[in-house]
Amino acid sequence: MGIIVREEETDTIVFYMKGADVVMQSIVQFNDWLEEECDNMAREGLRTLVVAKKVLTKEQYLDFESRLSQARLSVHDRAVKVQTVIESLERDMELLCLTGVEDKLQNDVRNTLEMLRNAGIKIWMLTGDKLETATCIAKSSRLVARNQDIYTFKDIKNRNEAHLELNAFRRKSDSALIIKGESLETCLQYYEHEFVELACQCPAVVVCRCSPTQKAEVVRLLKTHIKKRTCAVGDGGNDVSMIQEADVGIGIQGKEGQQASLAADFSLTQFSHLAKLILVHGRNSYKRSASLSQFIMHRGLIITTMQAVFSSVFYFASVSLYQGFLMVGYATVYTNFPVFSLVLDKDVPSHIALTYPELYKDLTKGRSLTFKTFCMWVLISIYQGGIIMYGALLLFESEFLHIVSISFTALILTELVMVALTVRTWHRLMILAELLSLAIYVVSLVVLKDYFDPVFLTTWQFAWKVLAITLVSCVPLFVIKYIRSKFSPPVYVKVK
User: Fold this and answer.
1) How many CA atoms lie within 13 A of 292 on its CB side?
2) CB distance 197 to 224 below 8 Å
3) What pLDDT is stored for residue 8 in this prediction?
4) Is residue 137 a contact partner of residue 104, using CB atoms and an 8 Å limit?
5) Where does residue 209 fall: left (phi above 0), alpha (psi -120 to 50 degrees), or beta otherwise?
6) Is the N end or the C end of the chain the one with fewer CB atoms within 10 Å?
């Protein structure tokens, strides 16, 4: 990164530039101390930065400005031409200084990384620092345990060296891996699949001297080969490409600006908030989405089953079982509030999810929303729809309105009971949603006289028939759920 300034008093034009030592060594004039001092600072865990300058004459500056303007107006390969013009200025620069800054960790970084590891999440650190600096940061943050072996991947240049080094690394796959960006690029060129397979077996991976483009390539590589969800966390402009490439991008607002947080899906002020975002909010989001999607499917399939049974009994006549407001009200005011109140449900409190991060491992198996659960809810919907419709047909006596009254009331009660059986932790808004939906339906029985028989609704026959059908449709499912909770309880029940 560079800037051109003009001093007002002397009218001198100076080009200042800063960058990593690896890049700046080929740009600055020859010296015999830069590399040695960079290594010394890196061993102390400091992040190094080289600053250089170049005095330009007025003719040099005007020539550079003219060529840069032409490159920016180019239609084809504009970025390449602009970069070429800029690189023509980055030559034979005078070395000004070398800075070393301590990269101080935020609070609770160590505990956060430990919780994420216990949750079964693989953590890779991608950084542009030197190898020594990256090693110090990995140890200080406890990404690599103090008693854990570290395998430092040697510098490789060709296919043969990559093959020998991978064979050596294969014998120490239980160690933490630290590899430079150049060596990584060579490995991926010749042995992409083998390297990813070995690296994923390591408890931790650190890629140092990694450019922003390489960071995005590593994320893309993991998405392609291991078919898992990736989450990229960064706090600087160099992390933007990585954040945008990942399935979930998280930006941390820090002293390096807000480029990362603006480009990310989620923005945090502290790295320690990452544990609560993933282990608590991520867990609740997954569980609630699974329950909500299954219930929406159940709500539509059960009434479809009832219509299919009704049509088959009456010789497939094209007659709708529920007409007018009943069909609209079923999907809105009668069942909408209880079903959507499931977004407030949670299986474990926040403090337990953070105390036992191992609970998150069960979510990675994806058992809450699978083809198996889909088939299970389809069978439940068919069973309940069939019971309600056949029960209403068997128990009604004379008028068609009685079928509608019995079956529709049993349908609404069954839906409310099923929501109640699914809830794991009650919230006051859930109770309010259940009571509100029931109250609206009771008022509808009185108001909608065209759809119901008011006289029949006040009889004991209506009450016991609705109650019997509702019990037959719900009690067997409750018994199965109770037996399953006793003999094969979920993991979160044990810690509660």
Assistant:
1) 15
2) no
3) 83
4) no
5) left
6) N
Residue 151, beta-bridge partner list: 177
Beta bridge partners, 13, equal 6, 56
Question: For the chain, what percent of residues have pLDDT higher than 70?
Answer: 98
Tell me what pLDDT residue 410 has. 93
Token pair, residue 431, equals 């109770």
First to last CA, the chain: 54
How far is 268 from 261, CA to CA, in rounded Å? 7
Beta pairing class for 150-152 and 231-234? unpaired
Query: Dihedrals φ, ψ of 259, to 5°?
Result: -60, -45
More confident of the two residues 20 and 353: 353
Alpha helices in 73-211 (DSSP H): 78-89, 109-118, 131-140, 159-170, 181-190, 192-199
Q: Give the separation between CA 184 and CA 29, rounded to whole angstroms.
A: 29
**What letter represents residue 240's amino acid?**
V
* 399: CB partners within 8 A, 6+ apart: 453, 456
CA distance 461 to 9: 102
As a whole number of angstroms, the distance between CA 209 and CA 20 comes to 9
Which pair of tokens denotes residue 422? 């699914």
Closest CA to 459 of 402, 390, 407: 402
- What is the full DSSP assignment across 213-259? HHHHHHHHHHHHHT----EEEE-SGGGHHHHHHSSEEEEE-BTTBSH
pLDDT digits (tens, 9 = 90+) for 450-489: 888 788 888 888 889 999 999 999 999 999 988 988 887 8
8 A C-beta contact, residue 169 and residue 142: no
DSSP letter assigned to residue 154: P
Bin 324: left if φ > 0, else alpha if -120 < ψ < 50, else beta: left
Partners of 463 in the β-ladder:
none
Measure Cα distances from 13 to 4, 61, 113, 334 in Å.
7, 8, 48, 76
For a pLDDT cut of 90, what percent of the chain falls above it?
Answer: 29
**Dist. CA 31–CA 341, nearest whole Å:** 69
* The 176-180 sheet, strands edge to edge: 124-126, 205-208, 176-180, 150-152
Distance CA 486, CA 496 (A): 14
pLDDT at position 429 is 93
